[in-house]
Amino acid sequence: MKSLFTEVEFHQIRKASENTLGDAFMVNKDSSEQRLIAVLADGLGSGVKANILANMTARMAMKFAETDTDFTHYAKVIMDALPVCQVRRIAYATFTVVDCRPDGSVQIVEQGNPPFILLRGGQQVKVPACEYDSARNDYRKLRVYRFHIQPEDRIVFFSDGVTESGMGTAGYPLGWRITGCADYVANRVQAEPQISARNLARLVTRTALQKEPDRKAYDDISCGVIYFRTPRRTLLASGPPFADNRDADFAERIRSFDGTRIVSGGTTADIVARELGRDIHTDLFRFKRSSLPPISTMEGIDLITEGILTLTETLRQLEGSSARASENAATLLRDRLLDSDVIHLLIGTRINHAHQDPNLPVELEIRRSLMRRIATALEDRYFKEVNLEFI
């Protein structure tokens, strides 16, 4: 597992009549220990009450898992600690816990949630489970799975809002069910073997929503995907290097990078084009309605954007604070970053004398701040591995 990157993503759609999600999804990714724990809890009912129950259950599961308590023991404790509703005779919350270890071993425990799906080579692989009854002698059971992952494996898990979507309709009288979900994700991966966890999770929830009458969610719909793969690497370079005599080295660093190459900033792109003897072609038509400057292309460079404005909007989108929905240079840059695993930010520190007083290097500080905040968002919100280098 140490040689693989673990991409974990989730997507959720709340019940149409509620303003709050009744499912909770939590992730703890410890880069130093190469360990990842993901929890999906589904609270009884919907709305605020369900949200409280789901979050309480997810936090309890996460705390137990982090202490390295015996996996089966803590799952039993959680199950027995959660009471059963006296009216509906069902548990106050159900849960799935996925614990990925540095030696490549995976432990999964489920109580009440639909069974997870393991995809290997684009096909579903059945994993045997050990079952444990509740100490309260009620209907509840724990399913515990243990196996070792392989490169390109995917773990897909979800709440019953996915498997029960469309229930009662002519096409899906019993809902989409686990077999329908398994066939769908297997077909998607076979059609697009490199599909990211982020895109697959969104496809599952949106496809489930389409099966609902009037495309209105009758329950909270949540899906998590964990994808084990060889790391996808991206270099984002922005700003010219401090010393003019470093331009050639700067351009060569970008040219020789093994992965996706992105340049942000007109001056930066001009330096790379000059040093590599290549032409820049600006695409004025792709995002002609966008308020952001257009993107450009160059041989050997995967994406060229304007600098500060585009980076600022990209940061807003990464932090989830942008209402912008239309596609533009920033959404393109954001998607390239999110589809990557290991991201190297190469930040030039030369002051652009044409833009401001060299004694007040405002643009330089803005660029540094933006790149640091982008790195923090990628690490904290999307669990990417990010390196910053100032040149």
Write up this protein.
The chain folds into two domains: 5-229, Phosphatase 2c, domain 1; 233-390, no CATH class. Helix content is 32%, strand content 27%. The chain has helices at residues 47-66, 71-81, 160-163, 177-191, 197-210, 247-255, 266-276, 308-318, 329-338, 362-380, and strands at residues 5-13, 23-30, 35-43, 93-100, 105-111, 117-120, 123-125, 130-133, 141-148, 154-158, 221-229, 233-238, 260-264, 281-282, 296-298, 301-305, 342-347, 385-390. Strands 14-15-16-13-12-17-18 form a seven-stranded mixed β-sheet, sandwiched between helices. It has a six-stranded antiparallel β-sheet with strand order 2-3-4-5-9-8, with helices on one face. Helix 1 runs antiparallel to helix 2, helix 8 packs across helix 9 (329-338) and helix 8 runs parallel beside helix 10 (362-380). It is elongated and about 75 Å long.
